[in-house]
Amino acid sequence: MKRRLLLVSNSTLHGSGYLDHCEHNISHFFGKDVKRVLFVPYALHNRDAYTKTARDKFKTLGYEVDSIHKAADPVDAVRKAEAIFIGGGNTFRLLKSLYDNKVVTEIRRRVLEVRPLSAHLPAPNVATISINTTNDMPIVYPPSFSAIGLVPFNINPHYLDPDPNSRHMGETREQRITQYHEEPDTPCVLGLREGSMLLVEGNKATLLGTTKARLFTRGKSSVEYDPGSDLSVLLTDAQ
Amino acid sequence: MKRRLLLVSNSTLHGSGYLDHCEHNISHFFGKDVKRVLFVPYALHNRDAYTKTARDKFKTLGYEVDSIHKAADPVDAVRKAEAIFIGGGNTFRLLKSLYDNKVVTEIRRRVLEVRPLSAHLPAPNVATISINTTNDMPIVYPPSFSAIGLVPFNINPHYLDPDPNSRHMGETREQRITQYHEEPDTPCVLGLREGSMLLVEGNKATLLGTTKARLFTRGKSSVEYDPGSDLSVLLTDAQ
Ligand SMILES: [Ca+2]
Ligand SMILES: [Ca+2]
């Protein structure tokens, strides 16, 4: 399997600009062969403005950007793309638009099968089995919570440790993921803290970035991984 | 319309026990005529344990608790209830179970039409138009985000003001509600901070509790309301 994915916890780190913290990862990931990147702006309301932001940033890295929302046939745009970049924002809105535009299956096919497509996703939930572990507000109702399914686990982006000084009584992130694992047959959840990303190449997965990640497995204790860790075990269906 | 609802932001306040912060509101709300309360524990996984917690607390206030999950016929249990108490937890799990058990319509009918049922809801999202503005993780997929519809607006419970010292880049609560209002024809959202609750009696709504609430209206600036404020305007369909 030739898939190449870069699953990023967040597009912007505190105190820096859009994609600044992962720009060297982007250049390294897309490399010199890619000239044009297909951008998916569905996660934000103002698609034109979002495309301009992405286009300006990618230009500084040497890539041209075409936005899928301007394509006459979105499925054909995916079919012909050299590389794809799915922008973050609201996961429910993004997934609903991917279904509305009928591109879920085509993205999966392009990444996992023929003529592999490098996919860069600061919207990592849509790349996983399902969006069940997003932090976003369910502002629209997608036809399913099943996502593109490029990897056989789930991700919790912007993962946050419990704040011992908090007086707020909303559930902690860990409690929410534990509630998810109370449901039967639920897969692993990788808690990606801000600044962290997962590079997937074929059947190899590597944790990149500057922060540790926490892996939650149903019925087991959670485990911390340092940047640089090999997380290929996540890619076997049996976990 | 004879509806009587107490919509509560949260079941537990920091430093106090389950329902302690609103126990006098509960006693005042159910009064002396109610003897037995029908408890809905669907929002948590361990329904027996949750029922015991609720039963122990309600006993100290002088009420017996029957849990809907032990009823042979949940719809009949709603039909015959004197009063209902829907516990908080995960809103997606709660709403899915309400649909699975076919009680959404019967609760609406009992609260809004015949032989009015007093409903106490520390799970306020299910009482509103939809669960689109819950903070919970979407751990299960309900057949719809449409909720019981006892009031014609939405609620964001555990409402949090932006933290100026935060370095976390997840969207603030205000940004999330703004994203909801980017969608067409979306209703008002009442941000209920922890410690706050809304009493609805017929066509009158009053903010109770110890904290202010923030009202978000599509296309307008948000407005703060003090405890004691009359919010009956929220109950007119035209907002
Ligand atoms: Ca997001
Ligand atoms: Ca909750």
From TrEMBL, chains A, B:
<protein>
    <recommendedName>
        <fullName>dipeptidase E</fullName>
        <ecNumber>3.4.13.21</ecNumber>
    </recommendedName>
</protein>
<comment type="similarity">
    <text>Belongs to the peptidase S51 family.</text>
</comment>
<keyword id="KW-0720">Serine protease</keyword>
<dbReference type="InterPro" id="IPR005320">
    <property type="entry name" value="Peptidase_S51"/>
</dbReference>
<comment type="function">
    <text>Hydrolyzes dipeptides containing N-terminal aspartate residues.</text>
</comment>
<keyword id="KW-0963">Cytoplasm</keyword>
<keyword id="KW-0645">Protease</keyword>
<dbReference type="Pfam" id="PF03575">
    <property type="entry name" value="Peptidase_S51"/>
</dbReference>
<keyword id="KW-0378">Hydrolase</keyword>
<dbReference type="GO" id="GO:0006508">
    <property type="term" value="P:proteolysis"/>
</dbReference>
<keyword id="KW-0224">Dipeptidase</keyword>
<dbReference type="InterPro" id="IPR029062">
    <property type="entry name" value="Class_I_gatase-like"/>
</dbReference>
<dbReference type="GO" id="GO:0008236">
    <property type="term" value="F:serine-type peptidase activity"/>
</dbReference>
<dbReference type="GO" id="GO:0016805">
    <property type="term" value="F:dipeptidase activity"/>
</dbReference>
<dbReference type="GO" id="GO:0005737">
    <property type="term" value="C:cytoplasm"/>
</dbReference>
